[in-house]
Amino acid sequence: MAVRAVRGAVQLERDEAGHMDEQVGALLTAVLERNGLSTDDLISIWFTATPDLHSDFPAAAARKLGIVDVPLICAQELDIAGAMPRVVRLLAHIESDRPRADINHVYLGAAAALRKDIAQ
Questions:
Q1: How many helices (H) and strands (E) does the chain have?
Q2: pTM beyond 0.85, yes or no
C-alpha cells in the first residue's frame, strides 16, 4: 500500500461556523467518495484557511463527520493580495493502491478556479 496525497479546496459564502461545517464536510465527503476511500485509509489531514475566516477550525467539521482518530491540523493561508477570499484548503495523506495519476483532487464550486489543471 502506497502513501498518496489528495488536495482539495472549497470557497465559503460567509464566515459562519455552521456554514464552514457544511462546506468542509462536503469537501471531505467528496474527497473520500471520488477516491474510493474510507476513514481507515486516512493518515492525516492538513487544513488551511484564508485569514478572513475566523468562525471555527476547519478540522472541527472533520471531527463532526466522525473522523476522530486521524491527526488533523489547521493553519492560516498566506495573506496574498488578490487571492480568492474565504477558502479552506486541505491536503490529506492517504493509503491507497491507486497510482498517483489516478488520485482525484477535489475543488468544489468557485474553488475549482484555483487549480483548473487538476480540479475534477
A1: 2, 5
A2: yes
